[in-house]
Design brief:
Elements (H helix, E strand, L loop, with lengths): L23 E9 L3 H20 L3 E9 L7 H5 L4 E5 L5 H11 L5 E5 L3 E3 L3 H12 L3 E9 L6 H6 L12 E2 L6 E5 H7 L13 H11 L4 E12 L7 H21 L4 H32 L2 H21 L2 E3 L9 E3 L6
Parallel strand pairs: 1-2, 1-4, 2-3, 6-9
Antiparallel strand pairs: 4-8, 5-9, 6-8, 7-9, 10-11
Helix pairs in contact: 8-9, 8-10, 9-10
């Protein structure tokens, strides 16, 4: 398939032009995989948020759990919470789960994603919906706040690796993560955008999805009032995990560019740029790490090391090395051809 050609945003339906009679239907989707305890804590919180937005009469909402465990490990938890709809998506990978949520929300105008290990802050959903009403955007992205299970390596804190971006509400963005994201499904369907299953185990499917949506002419905006707390598990607060994640992000950056690019010559240019940019990051990161060693700055050491691994990931992606962060067979690294969309 060829890359999706750019379109003008005026070709897509807007929130203002397509009001839904009797209230706008909203589906709140929770992708999950073998985290029943997290799910047990999250679902009542989501039902409170759904009840709050429904009380105003402008919205009707439901909670949907999409379980990627073929054994249905989350079924008993979901069944114990009245008002929650539960489905199993047996195809492995987060992209398959998110696409299943898109399909299950066929009768809804809006779809909000929140991860099973996150917790919504007060007015999380209401703030997303208010920004959507004000902006008419195809996607509204909110903040993620990190919460640690205990003491954290000072190196991790110095690098600020779990501190996410924030900006004024209404700021236009061109890429968004899906941990706290509201989608206008009318506009998503008009753009023909779905999550790429080929990246379902490698990560970066949310980057490709949002960038594809932007390429189709859809607007995406920020909502700073909407926040969800990411409960960072202890196994992720290690230097090894942070550096491998940096490699994975660098890898996904180049793979996303390749999938958005059509034509052999153009894709070769993307690969060449990926190698060059990766080497520049590697060199710059090495210099910053060395500066940190000399000056005793933990921040420079940490950020420099991450830049090195991100650069290596970009070079790897340009040369055809794919890192499957969520692989379930233990095989994380592979050589593969990334076909264009």
């Amino acid at each position: 398939m060829t890359a999706t050609p750019p379109m003008q945003s005026t070709t897509l339906p807007s929130a203002r032009r397509r009001p839904d009679p009797g209230g706008v239907r909203v589906t709140v989707a929770v992708p999950t995989f073998r985290r029943p305890d997290d799910l047990r804590d999250l679902l009542p919180r989501l039902l409170e948020q759904v009840a709050e937005v429904a009380a105003g009469g402008r919205f009707t909402a439901q909670v949907l759990v999409v379980d990627n465990d073929p054994a249905g490990s989350g079924s008993a938890v979901a069944a114990a919470v009245p008002g929650v709809r539960y489905v199993v998506e047996s195809r492995p990978g987060i992209a398959a789960v998110r696409n299943r949520a898109l399909d299950e929300a066929a009768g809804s105008r809006l779809l909000a994603f929140i991860d099973d290990d996150e917790r919504p802050c007060e007015n999380w959903l209401g703030a997303l919906l208010a920004t959507w009403e004000d902006s008419g955007a195809a996607a509204v992205s909110g903040r993620i706040l990190a919460e640690y299970p205990g003491p954290v390596d000072p190196w991790i804190l110095a690098g600020r690796f779990f501190v996410r971006r924030r900006m004024p509400t209404g700021t236009e963005i061109d890429v968004a993560a899906t941990g706290n994201l509201l989608l206008d499904l009318d506009q998503v369907r008009a753009a023909g955008t779905r999550f790429e299953s080929a990246l379902g185990l490698a990560g970066g499917e949310d980057t490709l999805f949002s960038r594809s949506l932007a390429h189709a002419g859809a607007r995406m905006v920020w909502c700073d009032e909407s926040a969800a707390v990411d409960r960072v598990p202890a196994e992720r607060t290690t230097r090894r995990w942070v550096l491998i994640r940096a490699w994975s992000h660098g890898n996904a950056t180049v793979l996303t560019e390749l999938r958005l690019t059509a034509g052999t010559a153009a894709r070769l240019r993307v690969r060449a740029r990926g190698v060059l940019r990766g080497l520049l990051r590697l060199g710059g990161g090495s210099a910053r790490w060395a500066l940190g060693r000399v000056s005793g700055s933990a921040r420079h050491q940490a950020r420099g090391a991450r830049a090195v691994f991100r650069g290596l990931g970009m070079v790897g992606g340009a040369l055809g090395v794919v890192y499957e962060e969520y692989a379930r067979d233990g095989r994380r690294w592979r050589l593969g051809r990334v076909a264009p969309r």
